[in-house]
Write a structure and sequence with these properties.
With 269 residues, the protein is an alpha/beta fold. It is 41% helix and 16% strand. The chain has helices spanning 23-32, 47-58, 73-77, 93-100, 114-117, 164-167, 180-191, 195-209, 222-233, 238-250, 254-268; strands at residues 37-40, 62-66, 78-83, 86-91, 103-107, 129-132, 137-140, 146-151, 171-174. Residues 183-266 form the CbbQ/NirQ/NorQ C-terminal domain.
């Protein structure tokens, strides 16, 4: 039985996800073996949606934690809180998932401090335990617990990268942007627009991705295309929708914006 602690984290409706390879089968096998999984790929390519879909598919609650540079180990594991009757311990989201058997998803783990992520190490090997030093407690992971992290290799740097001792504890599934026809199908469905318009947006994305490494850290993501499609579907002229959802958010550099705008104009002719 799933503990009531995680009832609010059930995925009750099927999240739409279009498989592009063997990622569903690999994840299912990893969950069956209770192996931790790392999802690698650029921002906005469907990593989070994939985890949501798999949590629904497997019938497990999903505890998602958005990692950030100020996140401490206590934010994951828990802390003592002062209440009128004295101090009481409150489990953090990771501890709740460990105790009650949910999938815990650490989104963009590279954003967290490296000293914080070390807390997950005992959960990713044969021990499957979470030490709560402040309580002098060792929490054994529920049999249904699984740890999943996402990681954007495009952000690798001396200060923003995962330690090898962390990476090598996980299975990895590589994500990228799907083939144009598949991406157009995703955009058309999610933005509720026709397939031809979705294909034009995918063409814009392809041109922006060609600028990666030439001034752009990332090209237009699938998420950006969906945003542009929703604007266009809501009556905003397509050129304006693309400018607001893709060109302006993706860079502040005037020259790059001009290059992107030229590419957009070529796509819209």
């Amino acid at each position: 039985m799933i503990g009531s602690e995680l009832d609010a984290f059930r995925v009750t409706r099927e999240p739409y996800y279009q498989p592009v390879g063997d990622e569903v089968a690999v994840f299912e096998a990893a969950y069956a073996a209770r192996l931790p999984v790392m999802l690698k790929g650029p921002t906005g390519c469907g990593k989070t949606r994939f985890v949501e879909h798999m949590a629904w598919r497997l019938g497990r609650p999903l505890v998602t934690i958005a990692c950030h540079e100020d996140m401490s180990a206590a934010d994951l594991a828990g802390r003592f809180l002062l209440e009128p009757g004295g101090t009481v311990w409150q489990d953090g989201p990771l501890t709740r998932a460990v105790r009650h058997g949910g999938i815990c998803y650490l989104d963009e783990i590279v954003e967290a401090r490296q000293d914080t992520t070390v807390v997950i190490h005992p959960l990713t090997d044969a021990r499957r335990v979470l030490p709560l030093d402040r309580r002098n407690e060792l929490v054994a992971a529920h049999p249904d617990f699984q740890l999943v992290i996402s990681y954007n290799p495009g952000y690798q740097s001396a200060v923003k990268d995962l330690k090898e001792s962390t990476k090598q504890r996980f299975l990895a599934i590589d994500f990228g942007y799907p083939a144009a026809s598949v991406e157009a199908e995703i955009v058309a469905r999610e933005a509720e627009i026709d397939h031809d318009l979705a294909l034009r947006l995918v063409d814009v994305a392809a041109r922006s991705r060609n600028l990666r490494g030439h001034g752009l850290a990332e090209g237009a993501s699938t998420r950006m295309l969906i945003h542009a499609g929703r604007l266009a579907g809501g009556g905003v002229p397509l050129a304006a929708a693309i400018r607001s959802a893709i060109v302006l958010p993706i860079t502040d550099d005037p020259d790059l914006r001009e290059a992107l705008q030229s590419a957009v104009s070529a796509c819209l002719q």
